[in-house]
Specification:
heterodimer; A: about 625 residues; alpha+beta; Methylamine Dehydrogenase, Chain H; 4-stranded antiparallel sheet; 14 helices; disordered N terminus; B: alpha+beta; 5-stranded antiparallel sheet; 5 helices; WDR46/Utp7 (chain A); WD repeat-containing protein 46 (chain A)
């Protein structure tokens, strides 16, 4: 595994070249300080050059000047620093070679910025406007601070790079294991469990624990990094699916008849008879909901924090055995035998959306971690990637010789498909781009047909459950390199886990808030606002916020005759009238244009029905 | 939440839940009542803060007694029988060495802040015998000048026994006078002929006055914004005026259900507290017409006077049943030293509450207050009365010639006239 050097880190060597070329610009405030610093110590001259060059460090300096972001930390601070050069100097007479706050690269700031600067502030009252401006300034400052602290995300993602012309898909696991360090090599392992047949598996949210369940009843959970077994039982019943609940201490197992919950020692805690003949399980971590899809065609949401069933939705599409969750908005995607994928939330009895994806049944669905792309594979041997941002259109399609039975996305957007006993992994071109299906990034052949797939969070590891056991394979660049210690910390202690559990339970998001756009909650409800306004006007009989008619102000002595007042009033009235006329004219023109375009688009060949369209 | 953009998914619903929890916790921890100082043998009529010492408070009672309290020990440190009859007003000198009282016995007395030495008698430093009853007093913020009110507004030099000047406009008793804390030569007073009069000390004549629907009991200047003052009115409302434009108040604050007797600004100038005859005190933001908070207890009777302490953390109120009560200005605030983590959590929760304050569920929880039955039923009753008035108004507009019935806004409704 190689690590790519960051472009920003390699700047210092270039700096020397720049130094010789550039002429030092003279600043008005430097007049007094130059002679004093020269006399003070021999050190400063070289320091001064350094200092001067610092603002040039980010490559696109021209953007830097325009943007308000970079101006803020640099320009206003500098003069202040220079006002009293005495204070900068330490006792020894040395000067701070890098005065002022550290410069922040513009691209990084833009990455963290949430305001769309291209959209102008709406015309509003002065008070509202000033409040918006303050909010914007705050936002800018936070993005700068966030950009500053990006330094703390020390880890970088790895990736595979073939020597020139070499196909990375031809690199086999043995080669990778040979190349990486011992600790990483230990993450590749095979569990030979031929007896209890094809395995489903699940990693806990921290990526530290692995649970797998075999069709013939074998259930085990282990800390897969240290290979310490937590429990191993045989439930003496077919296991359809297995899933960790919010922490590694609880384990939900979909058995032949009912849904069972075990703790990490293998003790059965609950047998949930309301959920019967469950085929697939999904856990929504922020809502504490366990979504189960059953053979009877029901999608049931179980609140695991209080043990209540929140919603039982009848999908009316026969047996359900393809399910995945959208980690961005917690919507459940169900694949059906008629080739559609339906999107569900517990608040609605009907699906939020239905997407026709394939001719023939859907075999597998997966949604990436940002909620942007959905990958589906169907009985028509096709693998499609859909855009989930409103359009629901396929972005790319590929016909696979065998068709994929299992799909999964990694945290960084790698797509894996299990086809028979082969797994193929595709990677995208850059960040936040869909995986390109042209050329696989990696392939691997297993000792039996694949039955379960999942990328391990925060690790470059893919877990594959198959009929010959469980395989953990190395996939460089799969996992997010930096973890959020407050959210899911792989190294957390028992005490930390308990603390986190309490906090997480306090912040349990109600099930009713699940919808397609989770940000809709933060937006202004314009419709009900306008409705309320309308009702108020109706109730009062007049518009309390209407503009008062123009009243001319009395002027200086002698200028305020009745005639002139009337004249001024008339002037304003006329202007308003003209505005109105102008607006209505514009509207008319627009309508005309729309009509024309409509007529053009439909009027390629005149038909007999045209006369009915007005 | 983490700063990495790809991790921030689903932050809005989570923040919403956090804000909801923070709001609920705020209500759970809302325990504003701190202490009750008892010792007076009649209703507390006036309060004054010590300008230099946070712990010292002075109070005057209806039996002529003045007491000085220590808030940290919560006890009375000195008792003076200052007047015969009511102590009508009390104010401290800006240096904090002495204080003035006026009483029903037509005298103005100046007292030393420190008690008399051993064997000495409790005696005022100076006594001025006036001709009429004084109803209020206030001291200049920088100079040795004070103002009293009664039949007219008198401005006194501390060294003399006659007023420097007397100002009057109309012939009615003036109930309170207040110096502007920033433009220190400005004075405001309110009289029982329903007007608020502003004076300039340098001119010896009144500046202008505004006449309201009903009598104003007290006014209080905003300590941060020079021209803004708030008037506590008999018609259950408070009016915040800009001195330059008296014809329209900046804001009408209505939540009380009985006459408002006293008002005092917080030192930040963002909020003020009002005491009312309806046995409650309310805290209003300056720019909101509804109150943020209402404090009441079973035993508290008509609240006569109220003060906001100089560190803006506490509120004191003196009431009819002889007690002075100490409240927290922020009901759910934790007292004492906060650890840095507590502080960070507090700030974060505050920001979240601010962000989601307009959401129905959160707004409902944040606004809900338990009220005594008397106040609750009065609010209902007044709501019905107000609705009836509005309905009548709307009907009148509807059924008359358009434009013939002028639409008067709530702000302008209560202003009768402005005279210059």
């Amino acid at each position: 595994v190689e690590t790519a050097p960051k472009p920003g880190r390699d700047v210092p060597p270039k700096k020397d070249k720049l130094q010789t070329k550039r002429k030092k610009p003279r600043r008005y405030w430097e007049e007094e300080t130059v002679p004093t610093t020269d006399g003070a110590s021999p050190g400063p001259p070289c320091n001064k050059k350094n200092r001067e060059l610092r603002p040039q460090r980010p490559k696109n300096a021209h953007i830097l000047k325009k943007s308000r972001i970079s101006k803020k930390p640099q320009v206003p601070k500098k003069p202040r620093e220079w006002k009293n050069p005495e204070s900068q100097r330490s006792l020894s007479g040395a000067q701070d070679p890098f005065p002022g706050p550290a410069p922040v690269p513009v691209e990084v700031v833009q990455k963290f910025c949430r305001i769309d600067k291209s959209r102008k502030l709406p015309r509003s009252k002065a008070k509202t406007r000033s409040r918006l401006e303050v909010a914007e300034a705050e936002e800018e400052e936070t993005s700068i601070k966030a950009a500053r602290s990006e330094l703390l995300l020390a880890e970088e993602p790895g990736f595979l790079e073939g020597e020139d012309g070499e196909d990375t898909a031809k690199i086999c696991q043995a080669d990778i294991v040979e190349a990486v360090d011992i600790a990483s090599a230990a993450k590749h392992f095979d569990l030979n469990l031929r007896q209890f047949g094809p395995y489903r598996l699940n990693y806990s949210r921290t990526g530290r624990h692995l649970a797998f369940g075999g069709r013939r009843g074998h259930v085990a959970a282990l800390d897969w990094v240290t290979k310490k077994l937590m429990c191993e039982i045989n439930v003496m019943e077919a296991v359809r699916d297995i899933r960790f609940l919010h922490s590694e201490a609880l384990l939900a197992v979909a058995q032949n008849r009912w849904l069972h919950i075990y703790d990490n020692q293998g003790i059965e805690l609950h047998c949930i008879r309301r959920c019967d003949r469950v085929t697939r399980l999904e856990f929504l971590p922020f809502h504490f909901l366990l979504a189960t899809a059953s053979e009877t065609g029901f999608l049931t949401y179980l609140d695991v924090s209080v043990g209540k069933i929140v919603a039982a939705l009848n999908a009316r599409a026969g047996r359900l055995d393809v399910m995945s969750q959208n980690p961005y908005n917690a919507v459940i995607h169900l694949g059906h035998s008629n080739g559609t994928v339906s999107l569900w939330s517990p608040a609605m009895k009907e699906p939020l959306a239905k997407i026709l994806c394939h001719r023939g049944g859907v075999r597998a669905v997966a949604v990436d971690s940002t909620g942007t792309y959905m990958a589906t594979s169907g009985l028509d041997h096709q693998l499609k990637i859909f855009d989930l941002r409103g359009t629901y259109q396929p972005l790319s399609t590929r016909t696979l010789p065998q068709g994929a039975g299992h799909l999964a996305f990694s945290q960084r957007g790698l797509l894996v498909a299990g086809m028979g006993d082969v797994v193929n992994i595709w990677a995208g071109q850059g960040k936040a781009s869909p995986p390109s299906l042209e050329q696989p990034y990696l392939t691997h052949r297993l000792s039996g047909p694949v039955h379960g797939l999942q990328f391990c969070p925060f690790e470059d590891v893919l877990g594959v459950g198959h009929s010959g056991g469980v395989t953990s394979m190395l996939v460089p660049g799969a996992g997010e390199p930096n973890f959020d210690g407050l959210e899911s910390n792989p190294y957390r202690s028992r005490k930390q886990r308990q603390e986190w559990e309490v906090k997480a339970l306090l912040e349990k998001v109600p099930a009713e808030l699940i919808c397609l756009d989770p940000r809709a909650l933060a937006e202004v409800d314009v419709i009900s606002l306008e409705q309320g306004k309308k009702e108020r006007i109706e109730r009062l009989g007049y518009d309390p916020e209407a503009k008062a008619p123009f009243q001319p102000k009395p002027k200086q002595k002698g200028r305020s005759s009745t005639a002139s007042l009337v004249k001024r009033k008339r002037k304003v009235m006329d202007e308003e009238h003209r505005d109105k006329v102008r607006q209505s004219l514009q509207q008319q023109q627009q309508q005309q244009q729309q009509k024309e375009t409509k007529a053009k688009s439909t009027g390629a060949r005149p038909s007999a029905l045209d006369r009915f369209v007005c | 939440m983490s700063a990495k953009p790809s991790w921030t998914y689903r932050e809005v619903p989570r923040e919403y839940v956090r804000a909801l929890n923070a709001t609920k916790l705020e209500r759970v921890f809302a325990k504003p009542f701190l202490a009750s100082l008892d010792g007076h043998r009649d209703g507390v009529n006036c309060l004054a803060k010590h300008p230099k010492n946070l712990a010292t408070v002075l109070s005057g009672a209806c039996n002529g007694e003045v007491r000085i309290w220590n808030l940290t020990q919560r006890n009375c440190i000195r008792t003076i029988q200052a007047h015969e009859g009511f102590v009508q007003g009390i104010c401290t000198r800006f240096c904090g060495n002495s204080f003035f009282t006026v009483g029903d016995d037509k005298t103005v007395k100046q007292w030393k802040m420190d008690g008399p030495g051993y064997g000495e008698e409790e005696e005022p430093l100076h006594t001025i015998l006036g001709k009429t009853v004084y109803t209020g007093i206030d001291h200049h913020w920088k100079e040795a000048v004070f103002a009293t009110c009664g039949q007219q507004v008198d401005i006194w030099d501390e060294q003399r026994t006659n007023p420097i000047c007397s100002m009057t406009w109309g012939f009615d008793s003036i109930s309170s006078v207040k110096f502007n804390p920033v433009e220190t030569f400005l004075l405001g007073s309110c009289a029982s002929d329903r007007n608020i009069v502003l004076y300039d000390m340098r001119q010896a004549t009144p500046l202008k006055k505004v006449i309201l629907d009903m009598r104003t009991n007290t006014i209080c200047w905003n300590p941060m914004e020079v021209f803004i003052f708030t008037a506590a009115n008999e018609d259950y409302n408070l009016y915040t005026f800009d001195m330059c434009a008296l014809d329209t108040p900046v804001m009408v604050h209505m939540d009380h259900v009985s006459a408002v007797l006293d008002v005092d600004y917080s030192p930040t100038g963002k909020e003020f507290v009002s005491a009312s005859f309806d046995k409650s005190i309310r805290i209003f933001p300056v720019d909101k017409s509804q109150s943020r908070e209402v404090y009441h207890t079973k035993r508290m009777q008509h609240v006569i006077c109220v003060k906001w302490t100089s560190n803006s953390k506490y509120i004191m109120c003196g009431s009819d049943e002889m007690n002075i009560r100490l409240w927290k200005a922020n009901a759910s605030e934790k007292l004492g030293v906060l650890t840095s983590r507590e502080k960070a959590a507090k700030d974060y929760n505050q920001k979240l509450k601010e962000k989601f304050q307009h959401y129905l569920h959160i707004k409902h929880i944040a606004r809900h207050r338990h009220l005594p039955k008397s106040i609750y039923s009065q609010i209902q009753e007044q709501c019905i009365m107000k609705e009836a008035c509005q309905r009548k108004e709307v009907n009148r507009i509807k059924h008359s010639k358009p434009g013939s019935v002028p639409i008067v806004s709530e702000k302008k409704k209560h202003i009768v006239a402005v005279v210059k």
